[in-house]
Structure formats: structure tokens, C-alpha cells
């Protein structure tokens, strides 16, 4: 019966029936008072349960934002709902975190309150209640422990006080009215009947009014915490939903009709239907106090929405079978996304720490204590269990530091803490490994800020094992020093590297040998500081040089140029520049090359050209001087040959130096892998080494050793080939040698140049041919013929083959150098052995290569040379040499 129904009671009917109504109403009022008392008690329990559950879930989400947000939410709810005596939030230690109102608790209730608090902690997610009284004030206290945070751990206890004073007063007032009614009936009869007819419904009206007001306020609370209400009549299987339930999934309520228990099941994710049904039936069968479930529900747009249902059975029959169930639903999609993101971030961070072999540490300046993660010790070959029970690991850090690094490392960290701690802390030092070795550690960290951006007492950081990097740097320094010694030892030359940016926008020397002092009259430091001090000495037009450099960069081909310079002292010198462009891993362009002083050669060339120009006249006029002129010419040619050999040797130096980087780098990488495998083996030994783990380590060592052996053998082969070839080309020593061995050394030395081209060199020389001759000049001849083919034979082509072959005929050997290139024209074949004849004038070609070949073959080697060629059919040079060279 609603409160307005009582206002429509016909007072005249009540007076007419008089005493009959009196007896009936007396029983009705007693029954009604008892019913409303129980109904209000159940309603308050139900409302308290729902409000507490929803509020706890909300606070679980709010806990991500901190205590301040909790207090704001509690304050807002306290102001809005006056029937709440207080809302209080306690942490697991029993300390009040946030509170509103005044706690109603007498000294006698202290012990009972502690037992109540412990019971809540022992039964998380379970709703418990008790009554508190003080004078006329009566409060029902409802409590529940709640969870929250990324790991859904226990956050604390929520206490909600609901005033029962109004309800109790109303019931007492009703009983007083009944007593007054009985007294009045005895005294005044019909007058009392008339009086009762006007006032008997007042207590009931007040209770109905309070119930309606409570329902209205509950609606406000549910709206404030974004909840939808559902009710399930199990007898009819009809489900009553509010509009918000449908709106969560993008529907209107009428779109879901007819609404039964199958409606929610139909919209639940298929993988969660069975689990959700099991939770429902467990609660219906009395196995759980509440039904709580988090599932995904299908939105109208096809997305899955995470929802949380809280409910309980509100009515059962005399056999305990459930009749009605009521609950609330919340959209927790945002919370789930935050939890998932936090979980992924946490897993990503853990994986990153583990994969990077990084040791994490934390320094608490307030407690003066150091904490370290497990990886901190594993990189030192130690187990964190060794240091169990040590609260301050700073002592351990001090003990493990290298004696030479300890004072500096401690001082740097102290200086950081005393200065601007919001900057990055960086330090490097050595720490003792469990095997007695020293591990280089790079330590970095930063002080954590508070909410206002001010530094806190906590500084966090990481240790990174950089031992391999330090060893690699030392090895690189050793290689650089070796290259420095070699390049500084080459006479009349300068070895260099020029860095040109990404697209050749600038020129900067990153390496220069000491030869720059002899060639350009400036020291190494000046050249490294300003490359223009070298470039400004070149007489050649800067635009022409830049255009040629751009062409070499575009085609990634060797830069070769002869140019004149003017030294700071005014002296004119001629230089031969040979360099190879390549890109570094960072994308920068560099030229690795050598600069040779060819002034003597150019002077002799000039004299030869002048002699050739005036030869006919001078033969007639100065016949007597012919012998001296021929002597000068021979000496000039010998000097030119020596300069050409030095130029070729310089190109080989640049190529071999570049070629050595690959096998040495591979060996270094495998050595680094050995160190990592060693650490894994040590960790395995600490945890219990298995046979399979040992076998894997041995297999890895075997494979790595083979890789190191192959790469070092490759390096030794390159150095041996270059060494032998360099000795042979710088001296005319006669000795027996295998033709195949000599050709192998030549092919090995030319590999850096060949790899930059798409062309193939095939060595088909026989291993049985042994000559007693001059390997140096013969090697120079073969190199010149191969380089001549690479330069001229394949112009305009993207592929080609050069073949080296031989054939024994009596006391002579026929050595062939053939290509399948564009060939040589008939007119050009008549001039190819003439000095200074070249088709690459201005591009680094001197025109002396084949002339030197002809001179060496017909002179020192005691043989002859033939050439066969047709356009587009290739060219074949044949050297006909005696097996035993002539004696000189």
C-alpha cells in the first residue's frame, strides 16, 4: 500500500463502522508495524549492500588515482545523501584513510569493532553488518573489504553507517498512537473512533514516505556511480531491466524485448557463458553470499564491452528455493583497458630488463639504503640469495668496486645527490665478478619527482655490462694504431679518410697519416681541424673536382685523379689521389684513400713529352747526344715504373685495410658471443648444469671457434698475399715460384677492387707450372692487364668475365689474360703499347700501364706480348715467356 492510498480513506466510513474497525485496525496496525519494521530492515540491508558493493568497486577504480580522489568522492556522496551517518575508508593496518561524519562507537564497542574489522579482512568481497547505539542515536554499520589497483590486491575496508533512528522513532510513535487509541476508545467511545480515523495511518504514511525517499536517493546514487539495475523473477523467468542497462550496449529497452534470462546470456561472450552461468547457479544454490561476475557483452556496434554484475537473491520460498534476484551492472571497459595496458607495460618492462641483461637499483636517500634487482647480481655471476638478510646493499656495492675506481665512483654519486638530481646520473666503474675477473659497468639513473615535479628521496637507475664494448674499443684502438704505423711508414704518401655527410654536403678529415706534413706542409692536427687547409692547395678547379666526386659517389666507384698543388712554402708538387667511397652504418659517406707524391714522375713525363716533340729535329742536330738522351729516357722510365708501382701499391693498401675490417669484426663478434655464452653457462652451473646445456655450450664454442679460425685465416691470407706481393713489386728479386701461387696472391689482393664491380675474375692457371724468373715484374704485368680490362673492357656493360690461363710449349709458357668485353679497334691496337696513349685522359689514366707491361715483358722477363681483339668480341693478351728468364 502506498502512502497516498491512506490519505483517501473515507473517514465517514471509519466512523460508521466504529468499534468493528477499531478491533480490525488494532490487529492491522500491530501487524503493519511489525511488517514495516522487517521490510525496512531488509530494504536497508539490501540498499546498504548494493551501495557498498558499487561504492567499493568505484573506489577500486579510484585507487588508481590516489587518496585525495577517494576523499572527494566520499565527501560528495555524504553531502548528497543525508541519511548516511558516515562513510569511512580504512587501510589494511586499520588506519583511517578517508572519512565523513562522526563514528558512532562507545568504549564498550571498541573490542567488538576490532573483531568486526578482522572479520572483514578475513572475508574480502563479503558484506557484513552490525548495530551501534548511543543514547537515542541508532546506526546500522555495513562493511566490506575491497580490492583495486593493477594487481587487484586488497586495498582496505569500507564502512558505511546508515541511520535507523528515523525508522525506530516512527515505529515507537506508531505504538504510542496505538496505546492512545486504546485509552481513547475506553474513555470517549465514538469520539476516540473519530480521532483514530484521522490519525492511525500517520506512522504508516511516514514509513512509506521514507521508503519512497530512500528509493529516490538510491536512484541518485546509482546514477552517480553509473550503474544499471536488473531484477530476475525466477518463477516466471522474466527479467526487468532499466534503460541504462540497454544503453550500455547501445540499445533501447524495447529492442531487447521479450526480456528473459536468455537476453543477457545471448549478449554474453561465448567463451564466458559457461563460467557466468556457474557463478549464477552457485549463488542461487546458496554457495556464495553474492553473485559477482565480470564478463564481456556484445555492443550493438559489434564491439565487446566489459561489464561487472553484482547481485543477490532477495526472496526465497519456505523450502529455500530462490524466487527473486536483484542486482546492478557497471560498464568497466575503461578499467579493463587500463589494467590490460598496465599489465602489458609491466610485462614489456620485465622482458626488456631480462633481455637487455640490465641490473635495476634504487637508492633511498631518506633511509640511506640501496636495493638491487636479481639481474644486478647475475651480470656479476652471483645469486641474489647470497645477500639475503642484508637490508642495505650499499656495503656490497662498495666491496665489489675495483679499488682504483671506488673513491671516484662514490664521489660522483655523492656529487649527483648533492646537486641537481633531476638531471641524468651517469658513471662507469669496474666491479668484481664471481670468477675473480673485473666487469665494466655503466651506471645511469635519475631521481623520481613527486606530483609537483620536485625531487623525492628515491633515485632509480640501471647497471649495464659494457665489458664487451670496452674490449672492442681496446681492440679497435690497437687496430687503429697498427694502421697508423703502416700508413705512416709508406714514403711520399698520405693515407686518409674523408667524411662527406649524408649526401656529400661537406668535407672533413676523420683520419690523416703523418705523411700530410711532408706532402702539404701542415701537421695532422691542423688537417683534422680544417680540411680546407688541404683542399685550398689544389690548383684544379673546385667545380671539376666536385663533379668528379659526385660521379664516384653516384656509381660508388674508385676516385682517381692527378692534380697539382701549391704548398704553403710556395713549392709546386704533383699528387695522385686514389680513394674508394662507401657508406658507414650511420648513413654517412666516407672516402678511404691514399695520396701519393708523383712530382718526380710528372717531371720525367714532361721531359719525355718534350723529347718526343722535338726528337726528329734533335736527332739531326744532336746525334752526339743521343746516347745521353737514351740514358736519361731509360732512367725516367724506370722512375715512372717505380712511381706506378707505388701508386698501385697504395691502392692495394687502401683495399687490404678495408678488407681486413670484415674478418676482424667477425672474430670480435664471435668473441663477444663467447662471453655471453660463458655467462649463461655460469648461471646454469649455479642453478644445476644439465648435460644438454653443456653440450649446447660445447657446440656453440665449436662453431664459434671455426668462425674465428676461418676469419683469422682469411686475415692471415690477405696479409701474407699483400706482404709477398709488396716485397716482389718493390724489388726485382729473381727466384723460383709457382705461377698458380703468384696468381692466387694477385687475385686475393685485387678482391676488394673486384667486389665493387659486377665483373668476375677466373683464375685458370695450372698449379704445375714453375718459373725461374722475376715474380715482382710478372705480378705487375698481370695486375696492369687485369686493371686495364676492368677500366676499359666493360664500359657500358653490367657484367663480364676476365680469365687467366696458361699453356706450356717447350721451354716457354703462354700466359693469357682474356675478357669478353667491348674489344679494341684495329687502329687503337697499333698504339696501345705506346707511352701516354690512353682513352681515359683526365680521369686518372696515365697512358703508361700497357707501355710498362710491354717494357717488362720484352725486357727483364725476356719474352714477348701479343694482342688479339675484335669489337664486341673481347680482347686477349698473350705473354710468351721463357720458363727460365735470361741472366742479366
Automatic annotation (TrEMBL):
Coiled-coil stretches: 619-646
Q: Which domain of life is it from?
A: Bacteria
What top-level class of enzyme does the UniProt entry assign?
transferase
EC numbers? 2.7.13.3
Substrates-to-products reaction catalysed: ATP + protein L-histidine = ADP + protein N-phospho-L-histidine
- Give the signal sequence positions: none
Enumerate the CDD domains for this protein: HATPase, HisKA, PAS
Pfam families named in the record: HATPase_c, PAS_3, PAS_9
Gene3D superfamilies, A to Z: 1.10.287.130, Histidine kinase-like ATPase, C-terminal domain (3.30.565.10), PAS domain (3.30.450.20)
| Every Histidine kinase domain range | 655-885
Q: Which residues form the PAC domain?
A: 291-344, 425-478, 559-610
Q: Which residues cross the membrane?
A: 14-36, 175-196
**Keywords for this protein:** Coiled coil, Kinase, Membrane, Phosphoprotein, Transferase, Transmembrane, Transmembrane helix
An example of a GO molecular function for this protein is: phosphorelay sensor kinase activity
Q: Which InterPro entries match?
A: HATPase_C_sf, HATPase_dom, His_kinase_dom, HisK_dim/P_dom, PAC, PAS, PAS-assoc_C, PAS-like_dom_sf
Query: By its UniProt entry, which PANTHER family does this protein fall under?
Result: PAC DOMAIN-CONTAINING PROTEIN, PHYTOCHROME-LIKE PROTEIN CPH1
- The entry's protein name is histidine kinase
Q: What is the lineage of its organism?
A: Bacteria, Pseudomonadati, Pseudomonadota, Gammaproteobacteria, Pseudomonadales
Amino acid at each position: 500500500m502506498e502512502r497516498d492510498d491512506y490519505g483517501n480513506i473515507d473517514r465517514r466510513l471509519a466512523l460508521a463502522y466504529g468499534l468493528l474497525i477499531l478491533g480490525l485496525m488494532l490487529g492491522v496496525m500491530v501487524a503493519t508495524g511489525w511488517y514495516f519494521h522487517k521490510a525496512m530492515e531488509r530494504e536497508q540491508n539490501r540498499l546498504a549492500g548494493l551501495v557498498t558493493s558499487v561504492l567499493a568497486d568505484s573506489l577500486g577504480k579510484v585507487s588508481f588515482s590516489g587518496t585525495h580522489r577517494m576523499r572527494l568522492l566520499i565527501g560528495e556522496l555524504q553531502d548528497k545523501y543525508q541519511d548516511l551517518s558516515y562513510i569511512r575508508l580504512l587501510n589494511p593496518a586499520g588506519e583511517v584513510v578517508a572519512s565523513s561524519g562522526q563514528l558512532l562507537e562507545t568504549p564498550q564497542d571498541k573490542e567488538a569493532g576490532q573483531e568486526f574489522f578482522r572479520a572483514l579482512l578475513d572475508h574480502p568481497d563479503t558484506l557484513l553488518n552490525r548495530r551501534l547505539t548511543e543514547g537515542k542515536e541508532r546506526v546500522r554499520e555495513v562493511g566490506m573489504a575491497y580490492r583495486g589497483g593493477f594487481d587487484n590486491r586488497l586495498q582496505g575496508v569500507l564502512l558505511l553507517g546508515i541511520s535507523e533512528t528515523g525508522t525506530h522513532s516512527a515505529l515507537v510513535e506508531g505504538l504510542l498512537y496505538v496505546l492512545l487509541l486504546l485509552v481513547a476508545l475506553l474513555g470517549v467511545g465514538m469520539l476516540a473512533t473519530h480521532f483514530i480515523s484521522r490519525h492511525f495511518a500517520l506512522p504508516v504514511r511516514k514509513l512509506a514516505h521514507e521508503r519512497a525517499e530512500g528509493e529516490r536517493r538510491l536512484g541518485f546514487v546509482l546514477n552517480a556511480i553509473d550503474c544499471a539495475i536488473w531484477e530476475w523473477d525466477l518463477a516466471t523467468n522474466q527479467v526487468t531491466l532499466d534503460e541504462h542497462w540497454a544503453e550500455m550496449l547501445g540499445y533501447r529497452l524495447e529492442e531487447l524485448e521479450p526480456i528473459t534470462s536468455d537476453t543477457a546470456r545471448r549478449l554474453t561472450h561465448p567463451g564466458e557463458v559457461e563460467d557466468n552461468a556457474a557463478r549464477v547457479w552457485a549463488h542461487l544454490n546458496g554457495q556464495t553470499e553474492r553473485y559477482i561476475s565480470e564478463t564481456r557483452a556484445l555492443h550493438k556496434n559489434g564491439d565487446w564491452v566489459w561489464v561487472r554484475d553484482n547481485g543477490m537473491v532477495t526472496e526465497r520460498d519456505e523450502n529455500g528455493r530462490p524466487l527473486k534476484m536483484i542486482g546492478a551492472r557497471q560498464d568497466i571497459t575503461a578499467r579493463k583497458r587500463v589494467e590490460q595496458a598496465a599489465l602489458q607495460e609491466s610485462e614489456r618492462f620485465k622482458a626488456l630488463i631480462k633481455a637487455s641483461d640490465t641490473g635495476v637499483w634504487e637508492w633511498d636517500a631518506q633511509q640511506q639504503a640501496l636495493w638491487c634487482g636479481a639481474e644486478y647480481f647475475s651480470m656479476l655471476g652471483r645469486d641474489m640469495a647470497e645477500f639475503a638478510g642484508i637490508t642495505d646493499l650499499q656495503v656490497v656495492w662498495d666491496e665489489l668496486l675495483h679499488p682504483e675506481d671506488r673513491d671516484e665512483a662514490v664521489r660522483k654519486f655523492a656529487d649527483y645527490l648533492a646537486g641537481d638530481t633531476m638531471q641524468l646520473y651517469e658513471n662507469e666503474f669496474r666491479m668484481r665478478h664471481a670468477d675473480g675477473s673485473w666487469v665494466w659497468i655503466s651506471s645511469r639513473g635519475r631521481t623520481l619527482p613527486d606530483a609537483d615535479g620536485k625531487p623525492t628521496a628515491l633515485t632509480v637507475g640501471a647497471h649495464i655490462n659494457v665489458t664487451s664494448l670496452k674490449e672492442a674499443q681496446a681492440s679497435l684502438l690497437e687496430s687503429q694504431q697498427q694502421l697508423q704505423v703502416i700508413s705512416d711508414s709508406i714514403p711520399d704518401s698520405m693515407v686518409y679518410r674523408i667524411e662527406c655527410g649524408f649526401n656529400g654536403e661537406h668535407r672533413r678529415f676523420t683520419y690523416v697519416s703523418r705523411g700530410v706534413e711532408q706532402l702539404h706542409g701542415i701537421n695532422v692536427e691542423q688537417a683534422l681541424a680544417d680540411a680546407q687547409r688541404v683542399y685550398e692547395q689544389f690548383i684544379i678547379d673546385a667545380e671539376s673536382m666536385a663533379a668528379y666526386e659526385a660521379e664516384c659517389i653516384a656509381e660508388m666507384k674508385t676516385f682517381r685523379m692527378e692534380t697539382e698543388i701549391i704548398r704553403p712554402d710556395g713549392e709546386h708538387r704533383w699528387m695522385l689521389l686514389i680513394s674508394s667511397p662507401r657508406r658507414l652504418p650511420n648513413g654517412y659517406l666516407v672516402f678511404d684513400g691514399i695520396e701519393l707524391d708523383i712530382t718526380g714522375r710528372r717531371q720525367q713525363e714532361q721531359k719525355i713529352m718534350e723529347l718526343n716533340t722535338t726528337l726528329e729535329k734533335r736527332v739531326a742536330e744532336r746525334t752526339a747526344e743521343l746516347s745521353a738522351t737514351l740514358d736519361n729516357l731509360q732512367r725516367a722510365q724506370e722512375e715512372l715504373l717505380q712511381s706506378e708501382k707505388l701508386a698501385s701499391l697504395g691502392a692495394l693498401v687502401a683495399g687490404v685495410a678495408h678488407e681486413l675490417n670484415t674478418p676482424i669484426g667477425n672474430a670480435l663478434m664471435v668473441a663477444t658471443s663467447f662471453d655471453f655464452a660463458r655467462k649463461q653457462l655460469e648461471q646454469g652451473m649455479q642453478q644445476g648444469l644439465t648435460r644438454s646445456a653443456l653440450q649446447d655450450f660445447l657446440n656453440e664454442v665449436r662453431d664459434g671457434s671455426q668462425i674465428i679460425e676461418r676469419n683469422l685465416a682469411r686475415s692471415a691470407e690477405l696479409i701474407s698475399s699483400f706482404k709477398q706481393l709488396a716485397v716482389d713489386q718493390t724489388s726485382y728479386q729473381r727466384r723460383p715460384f709457382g705461377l698458380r701461387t703468384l696468381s692466387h696472391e694477385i687475385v686475393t689482393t685485387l678482391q676488394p677492387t673486384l667486389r665493387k664491380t659486377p665483373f668476375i675474375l677466373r683464375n685458370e692457371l695450372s698449379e704445375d707450372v714453375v718459373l725461374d724468373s722475376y715474380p715482382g715484374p710478372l705480378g705487375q704485368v698481370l695486375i696492369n692487364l687485369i686493371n686495364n680490362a676492368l677500366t676499359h673492357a666493360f664500359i657500358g656493360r653490367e657484367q663480364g668475365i676476365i680469365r687467366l690461363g696458361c699453356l706450356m710449349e717447350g721451354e716457354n709458357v703462354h700466359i693469357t689474360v682474356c675478357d669478353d668485353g667491348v674489344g679494341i679497334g684495329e687502329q687503337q691496337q697499333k698504339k696501345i703499347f705506346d707511352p701516354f696513349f690512353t682513352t681515359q685522359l683526365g680521369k686518372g689514366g696515365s697512358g703508361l700501364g700497357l707501355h710498362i707491361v710491354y717494357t717488362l715483358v720484352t725486357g727483364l722477363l725476356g719474352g714477348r706480348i701479343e694482342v688479339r681483339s675484335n669489337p664486341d668480341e673481347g680482347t686477349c693478351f698473350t705473354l710468351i715467356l721463357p720458363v727460365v728468364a735470361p741472366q742479366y
